[in-house]
Amino acid sequence: MTDSATTRTEREDFQATTDPALLESADRGDANLLSYQKLYELWERQQWRTQDIDFSQDREDWQNFPDDEKFQRMYGLSSFFIGEQKVAEELGPMMRAAPTEEMRIFLCTQIADEARHVAFFNRFYEEVGVLESTNLQDRLKETSEHLNPKFHDLFDDMLHTRVAKLARDPDDLETLVEAVTLYHMVIEGMLALTGQHFIITYNEENGTLPGFVEGFNNVARDEHRHVAFGARFLREMAKADPKYMEAIQRTLIESGPAADGVLTPPWYEEGMDLFGVSIEETREFAMKALGRRMKVIGLAAPAA
Length: 304
Hints:
- This protein has 304 residues and is mainly alpha-helical.
- It has one domain (34-44, 52-297): Orthogonal Bundle (Ribonucleotide Reductase, subunit A).
- Helix content is 73%, strand content 1%.
- It has 12 helices and 2 strands.
- The chain has helices spanning 3-9, 12-15, 36-45, 56-64, 67-97, 101-128, 136-143, 149-168, 173-206, 210-240, 242-263, 279-297, and strands spanning 273-274, 277-278.
- It has a two-stranded antiparallel sheet.
- Helix 5 packs antiparallel against helix 9 (173-206).
- The mean pLDDT is 91.
């Protein structure tokens, strides 16, 4: 881990989320997770505005990147831009299915966060000149061409199927456990936060895209807070009934191949570095984070 990455994850505002992946104590299965009320209050304290970010240097940086570098960067950008938009759509039924009002209130904040993340990417794309499209809907369509099929397996099949089931039957707690496992542990916890870690670090080390780095740090902090919610919810459910523990394990195993596919770009060739690190280092980082969260929930993470 680089000095800049260590400094970022040890920042007081990041540590305040109590995401187990940020806590060394989680290696022992120990984490003092925030209550749903405290997570809501933290959301109030950690507000930020996409309109405050200055992308003028980012535009100059992007114009000076070689075409092959732009192409490679687009994979990471596209996964986040499309991913934020898709999960924003899926949160409504999950929020309504949450069994307590405290949970529902926090999940309402997460819906607002995901919408802000889409707005952040849209503004970055627009002001930096990343795409030819001139509106949000067309940008989402244009950037989706950079995704691989495993992305659609994870979002459009596994997650959407469960969320659609929740929309029909909000009292189906086992399906809610599966959806939170997919969303908070796999999509946000493994994929998003791993990608953010390496993309932010790469840009910090190379002195590029400072506006993007500022905003993406805010996005990452939001997602650590979301994952902390997921860890608390799944720990409570795993303790409440063995069938929920089994649902978490089953979902992790089922989603593993698709998640690994999302980590690997379609143009990847053996031995390539992605944002300065190997695919093996990327997987190792993702699995360490998952392992810490699973220990706190009371489970063992599946083998990489």
